[in-house]
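Minutes, project check-in
Item: structure for the 190-residue chain
Input as provided by the requester:
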Amino acid sequence: MSNHQHFIIYKPYGYLSQFVYELKRPKKLLGDLYNFPEHTMAIGRLDEDSEGLLLLTTDGMMSEIVRSKKVEKEYYVQVDGVITQEAIEQLKNGVMIGFDGKKYLTKKCKAFMLIDIPNFPERAKKIRDARHGPTSWISIIITEGKFRQVRKMTSAVGFPTLRLVRIRVGNIFLNDLKSGEVFEVENFNV
């Protein structure tokens, strides 16, 4: 029987996916949302401007399993402009992005345009309004996770990311969690 604890959280916009921040500027951290046990770690990260499903655990081995290239991560992405089918195909086949000062070709992935606008909670910081032109929503499903990869991918095909929400990690879905909500689960079935 494991003594480890596992959590599912809807990481809100504006929070860092960490518990300690050493620099001088004050930041909102995961520990501000819930009294997590000692040695809790985020499995993967969502940058400060991203939101959505984040898994946390006290089990380092579980973290390794979930972060493996076998586990899909799905993102709903609001992009600037009405994305074209050509751009979607480019995303699917891999695009060149910058990573660690070098060019990197992303692995093939799944991508498609969403017909219905997702029903996410209002974000603390407004994105923009219709006066700035149209936007569209897409789904991107990847198995890798380079630094700001999805944002770099949409930018590479000419449709910069305005809002990014992770909705799925493996078989675990965001579902109806509210922004900032935390649930403890017995185990992750990814």
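Outcome recorded: Residues 85-93 form the longest helix (9 residues).
No further action items on this chain.
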